[in-house]
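call fold(seq) -> C-alpha cells
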Amino acid sequence: MNRVVITGVAPIAAMGQGQEFFDNLMAMKPVVKQTDENYCKGANVSKWYVPYPDINFTPYRDKLLQMPILAPLIAKSAAVSTIMALDDAKLKELDPDTPVFFGFSTPNADENFNAYNTIKAGKRLHPSANLKCMGNAISAWISILFGIHGKSKVISTACASGTDAIGEAYEHICMGKSKTAICGASDMTKSDENMIFRSFDVLGTLTHSDDGKPRPFSEERSGFLFCEGGACALILEEYESALARGADIYAEITGYRSCCDGYHIVKMPDYPEQVIKMLKSLSAGKNVDYYNAHGTATSVNDQMETTALTETFGEHAANIIINATKCMTGHAIGTSSAYEAAVTAYSIKNGIVHGNILGTPMEGFNLPQETTHCDIRCAITASFGFGGHNSALMMEKV
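ret:
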C-alpha cells in the first residue's frame, strides 16, 4: 500500500479564499448575513445564513476555457479552487492518469431554477442550459481543463460527499493506480426562491439563535447555520513522489472508513452503532489527539456525536481536542466536509486549532473557545449525511 499525503489545499468560502480563509478562521471572524425581513415576518423561522462566496473569475479567464459560458457555477468554483490548490502544492504538471474525485450534494440549484423560470415565462432556453444542469460537470470540467484522463467522477452522499471524495482519491493512490489525485467538493444551494434554505427550515434543522451563531456542542444549540455553499480542492500525492519533488506536506492520510446506518432517510439512530464501529475501526491502535466534528449544532447530531466519541474512546475522549468548524463556516452541505478536511490538514501542519463559538458547553469534552497552538500528531475528521451516510478520514503528522 502506498502512503498518501496532502500537498495542496484551497478553500473558497464567504470568509475567504486560500490562506485568507485560514487567517479568518483562526481569528474567529465568521461572515453571517440576515435573511430578508419579509421571509421572517410572522413565522418562527431561521433568520441567518452564510452567503455564497464572491469569486472573481477574471484572473482565471484564460485557464477556464469556455467554462464561463457552458459551465454551472459549482463547476467554475471547483475549477478555480483546483487551480489554487495546484499552485499551493507548487505542482506544475499533472500525470495524464491523474483522477478527479469531487463531492457535491445539490445539483446546480440556481441553474435548474433559471431554466425552469425561462420555460415558464415562454422564453427560449439558452443552448447551454442542459450543460449547466449536469452534476458531473464538476469533475468533467477539471479533467478537461488539465487534459487528464484518469477516473473522473462526482460523489453525492449528502453532507459526507467531500469526505468520501477525498477518501476515494486516497484509496486510488494507495492501490497504486496513480501518483496524484485532485479531490474535494463544491456545492451551491443558493437560488432566487430560497427553496433549499426553506426546505431545511421546515424540517426544523436551522438555528433559531438571535445572532446567527449556531453554538454546536452547547446547551443552547437549536440547529445549523445555513451556508449557500462554496468549493474546496485538495491535492493528494503518493508520499515518495512528493518527497522526490520537494513538496511541502500538510499531513499524511492514514485511513478512511465509510458506512451507512441503513436506518432512516433523515433521522439518526438513538444509539449510533455504525458510527461507533466506523470510528473504532479507523482509530484502532492510534492515539487520536484531535477530532474535527460534523458538529452541526442540531440537538440530535451533537448528542449522537458525543455518544459516539465516548463509546469509541472512553475516558480518552475528554482529552481529544474537538473543533466544530461549522460554527464559523456554517453548514455548506457537501462542501463542508472538504473544508473540514482542509482545516484538519492545516491544523496538523501549523500546530494550531481554531476556537469554537459556544454557549454553555456540553460537559466532559475538550472544546477550546479560543484559537490555540498545539502539537497534533493524529487526527480524525468525520461527516454524517442524510440517508445515514457516515464517513471519516484519519490524518497524521509526517
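The chain has a mean pLDDT of 95.
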